[in-house]
Amino acid sequence: xxxxxxxxxxxxxxxxxxxxxxxxxxxxxxxxxxxxxxxxxxxxxxxxxxxxxxxxxxxxxxxxxxxxxxxxxxxxxxxxxxxxxxxxxxxxxxxxxxxxxxxxxxxxxxxxxxxxxx
Amino acid sequence: xxxxxxxxxxxxxxxxxxxxxxxxxxxxxxxxxxxxxxxxxxxxxxxxxxxxxxxxxxxxxxxxxxxxxxxxxxxxxxxxxxxxxxxxxxxxxxxxxxxxxxxxxxxxxxxxxxxxxx
DNA sequence: CACATAAATCCATTAATCTGGAAATATGGA
DNA sequence: TCCATATTTCCAGATTAATGGATTTATGTG
Lengths: 118, 118
Fold this sequence. Notes:
The structure is a homodimer of 118-residue chains.
Chain A: H1 3-13, H2 16-27, E1 33-34, H3 35-42, H4 46-58, E2 62-67, E3 70-75, H5 77-92, H6 96-113
Antiparallel strand pairs in A: 1-3, 2-3
Chain A binds a DNA duplex (30 and 30 nucleotides) through helix 3 and helix 4.
């Protein structure tokens, strides 16, 4: 993930329909959702959703594979993580003091998914 | 940080001059950088940079305070962290399995700022 | 006050993005 | 083969974003 990749990913997510679609796809991992169902969920025409999916796919954030007559889209979680890491590296590089509160914030998120554990 | 805030922040960062300016401002915390120096650093005309700073400021990612004749801009780290948390919550909510690799990725970043520690 | 510096605002031009109708392509079934 | 379904591609109009010249506002200095 270089700067150009990050810019493309940020631009892809900086659009309401695409952000919501991507969130839905993350929530739908690892099953994926067909293009038509994504269009219905977003209340958008099929060709409009297709254009949005193309933007997300070009940014590497989603991928579609044909499954019968449908094309099943899935979020690329590794790519998404790479984006988050790219962003956080800006504040972390040699500046853990600045970045530390981020780990505190994320800790809540982390624990919410773990059963009560050490 | 609601969805609308996140969209504005993403759009603000999805532009080369603004992303680089924001990264410079993070690196310059807590001192800040004057608007004119930011324009020089980005090799952009002063009014163009002013427009970009206005976008970043409206997104809450930076803030400018007058210091003599200059206006000193600083990154709003809390807001930036809120954006990262907003993004990661999508994959973390009840799905720690999906999100776990993110913490592994960020751990490198975390340790790079800490002196060898437990 | 007169002048220089720093940044924002105004404005117009250009470029990019969003949107959706219409047509094309791909798959599966009778 | 013929038809229905699912999705993409093509294309054009409408909206929004980026850019930079000229001007204006704000501040500091002599």
